[in-house]
DNA sequence: AGGAAATATCTGACTACTCAGATACTGTTG
DNA sequence: CAACAGTATCTGAGTAGTCAGATATTTCCT
């Protein structure tokens, strides 16, 4: 694992490069495919689904936009435009932020709540059908544990990299 | 795990939705951050790096473009444009495909090989420094095994979803 | 062989991001 | 409290993807 990388072929075959590449590639494709499935079934993009979930966890008053750009890998400009589209689609609404007149609060509309429920059902169904059911039942726990370990490790790593 | 989802709050708190969301989010951010690091250090995008590695694994003759769109989550149109930029940057070159006159072969230039080596060094260094070194040494094997299991499971799931 | 269907790539039009700069506030500090 | 650095959001311009349609060539079937 500690060899110097001399040629391009060696670089491409390096154990760490290969292992991380496969892992990240698989995770990306999974997200891509699950996102596509929601998009086709519910007519909202993957990012919109994430935002619906973030807002569903918040309380009545909603969240300021910056809270959304922090949770997603999106610049503030990107969030402005994403929320513009979601507002145009009737899923969220913007209101004044009483604590800070620079900011706006974003909260779910009734239609947004309904869409969050609908999309979650689709999502859970897809995960279960294609991801979990083919595994023998006793592997579910092990798998869930793997997910936890990896998401924590990956999260820690991101924190250090920044 | 089998409850019906009734409200948006329940949807957002659903165990599967949360676990997959965290996992995919962490994997994405990790890829994003590692990609950024390569971009800043080497001046190539994350996708260009992936393509350099794919081509480095191929033999002298290179690969047809379609082989690249298959390995990446990219349409053929996207590959055309990505390779356009890489060719403009001097990293790859296109040649005729003697077996199929519709297609073109893409292969690394000397500059492309050098860039693959350079970027891999940076990548390995970052993974090691931020991801592996903070783990106690005896966890490395367990971790590598986790990566293997998860990337295989995710790959299988994607196959079933399509 | 002759022609239909499939495949590889390229392109025009569109979309959704990024970055940087503008605007409008807030908070801190001398 | 006046100035100034900081923060939240929005916007213009640029970039890199998608999709669908065009073109050239191959493959398959009769």
UniProtKB/TrEMBL annotation, chains A, B:
Gene Ontology molecular function terms on file:
DNA-binding transcription factor activity
Q: PROSITE patterns from the xrefs?
A: HTH_MARR_2 (PS50995)
Q: What is this protein called?
A: MarR family transcriptional regulator
Q: Which Gene3D superfamilies does this UniProt record tie to the protein? A: Winged helix-like DNA-binding domain superfamily/Winged helix DNA-binding domain
Q: Which gene encodes it?
A: marR
Q: Which domain of life is it from?
A: Bacteria
Q: Which SMART domains match?
A: HTH_MARR
For this protein, the record's InterPro entries field holds: HTH_MarR-typ (IPR000835), MarR/SlyA-like (IPR039422), WH-like_DNA-bd_sf (IPR036388), WH_DNA-bd_sf (IPR036390)
Q: Biological process (GO) annotations?
A: response to stress
Signal peptide bounds: none
PANTHER family tied to this protein? HTH-TYPE TRANSCRIPTIONAL REPRESSOR YETL, TRANSCRIPTIONAL REGULATOR, MARR FAMILY
- Could you read off the lineage of the organism from its UniProt record? Bacteria, Bacillati, Actinomycetota, Actinomycetes, Glycomycetales
Organism per entry: Glycomyces algeriensis
